Amino acid sequence: MFSKILIANRGEIACRIIQTAHRMGIRCVAVYSDADASARHVAMADEAFHIGPAPSSESYLRGEKIIEIAKQSGAQAIHPGYGFLSENTGFAEACEANGIVFIGPPSSAIAAMGSKSAAKAIMEKAGVPLVPGYHGKDQSPDVLRAEAEKCGFPLLLKAVAGGGGKGMRVVENMSEFDDALAAAQREARNAFGNPDMLIERYLTQPRHVEIQVFCDQDGNGIYLAERDCSVQRRHQKVLEEAPAPGLTEETRKAMGEAAVRAAQAINYVGAGTVEFLYDVDGSFFFMEMNTRLQVEHPVTEMVTGQDLVEWQLKVAWGEPLPLHQDQVKTRGHALEARIYAEDPDQDFLPATGTLRYLSTPDESAHVRVDTGVTEGDEISIHYDPMIAKLIVWDETRDQAINRMVQALEHYRIAGVKTNIRFLHALADAQPFREADLTTNFISAHEELLFPKSRLDTHKALVLAAGFVLEQRKSSEPVTADPWSPFSRKNSWRMNSEYAQPLKLQVGDDIHELKILERDDRYQVFVGDSVYHLNAKLDDDYLQAVVNGHRISVHGNLHEDQLVLFYEGDTFKCTVYRETYGFEEMAGEGSLAAPMNGAIVAVQAKVGDKVSAGQTLVIMEAMKMEHAIKAPADGVVSEIFFAEGDQVSEGAELIAIETEEAE
């Protein structure tokens, strides 16, 4: 077995690989960019090498530099993880040329599946069913338009070299085709260096079901159950599960055997995933093959009891597959939720910031957390915004869903926007519990997935007041007389009862509270209501009784910014001070950047008349494009940035003179 390997990746997948390698007695070499000098994967590795600046094109995508470090460190093999160079044919070839084992398939297999159009041709020959569409080499606009007409609408434009939802657009009719094609090609060129597209009929109610395959160097291949990855946003998976609910054993077997045929058709070696679209009538169609370990591989590990990274290392060393097909057994049900730094309420815009507070559920045989971050780490614009993967297992699907709901309630993050509340609503939604799954699940159930807060605003304000007051008490100096009022921070007055004021800002609203403190309890006045509050704070855990209702919340107070966590929901407020001068990020007639990122295109000139909703700027952040639209009708008066510029969240991009209402 290898004695030392290099991991050409970062974040949670690098940490995940290191854990298994260390368990097997293998030393690990990490690489890191400027942004990752203090990252968790660097600390976990036996040694680490600096590889370049923060942008991935100058660090994690520098294949020649990674190979140089592997040789310098004495690493016998390179594990690419997923993303970055994991499906790069040139990098796999360079490893082979330098006598370094690439822990993945041969470069010829990556090349065969790297082009979605070529892959479909190979699958057709192997007898794997295909979705109707076009995957030819002629990429001229006229040909693509003609093929689109032939395929029929709605259709899906998909980057030939793509992955992760990048370079993809759903087109409803021909009038949208040209703009969608240009945007998809531009995104594909930026992400993969290849703007070529394929066209597929867009099935309106499909499920995304994929098969985990594994092949050894002797040509043996097996499948290890299937995963349902239907719940997606922006064509990227949000929640995955194994096994896929509702499939017959005959369908499972047919899919698995088709997946193995697909892998063997390209002389595959190692871990791979064959993805299918599963239609409501039980038919399934080949979509693509990912020639690497998948983000969602832990759900397969949880139901099979196998360590897929260990399998990868053994197969790369030349060992046979650890199991034959008839030895593969599954037990129970597993789900994985991807926890992202993003704002679901703003169309899942990526978010940046510092993880100033991070508390995760306890791990056990039922709960697993795969992560590459620790409290205090920065979520930057340079990499994918995934914070962690939360994986749960139980005997049945219903029990596993309950585990997931509970675990999400115990996952608490402050300092950056996350999708935890959204995931909690998703896992607990009745249609999801009933396995009413399609790839448009999120858009079909928006009302359920974006619910109102579970906390009544007044009650939340009372709990916030209790948290603030109890934390102030905990910082009071210790005096010789514990009953002395003079060191208390509660606005105590001699010979009078004084209600201390506390202003809390929630969004744009400022709430003025009055608080009377009596011994171990408070009276809190909110508007015309009065609340009797008993509160006890233990670190970040507040136990409270509000008008006889016992309720417990966790919280984090940082520089007057308070976040309370309650049953998967959050309540955010600011301890308001008159000197703060809260200001809008941008005025009514202006266009502000909703995130940190780079300007890809400016689609207006000074003097142009624009309409509300018209796309004026295209930004790129975390490898995805985002259209910034005009907030109102008007005339462009100033443009502050140009293509290629880096901008910060809140920066004014364009000034618009709005039209006066008549």
TrEMBL record:
Record-given protein name: Biotin carboxylase
Domain of life: Bacteria
Pfam families cross-referenced by the UniProt entry: Biotin_carb_C, Biotin_carb_N, Biotin_lipoyl, BT_MCC_alpha, CPSase_L_D2
Organism: Marinobacter pelagius
Highest classification ranks of the organism: Bacteria, Pseudomonadati, Pseudomonadota, Gammaproteobacteria, Pseudomonadales
GO molecular function, one term: biotin carboxylase activity
Required cofactor names: biotin
UniProt catalytic activity: N(6)-biotinyl-L-lysyl-[protein] + hydrogencarbonate + ATP = N(6)-carboxybiotinyl-L-lysyl-[protein] + ADP + phosphate + H(+)
Domain Biotin carboxylation per the UniProt entry, residue ranges: 1-447
Function, as annotated: This protein is a component of the acetyl coenzyme A carboxylase complex; first, biotin carboxylase catalyzes the carboxylation of the carrier protein and then the transcarboxylase transfers the carboxyl group to form malonyl-CoA.
Domain Lipoyl-binding residue range list: 580-657
Chain segments annotated as transmembrane: none
Record keywords: ATP-binding, Biotin, Ligase, Nucleotide-binding, Transit peptide
Pathway field: Lipid metabolism; malonyl-CoA biosynthesis; malonyl-CoA from acetyl-CoA: step 1/1
Annotated ranges, domain ATP-grasp: 120-317
Subunit structure: Acetyl-CoA carboxylase is a heterohexamer of biotin carboxyl carrier protein, biotin carboxylase and the two subunits of carboxyl transferase in a 2:2 complex.
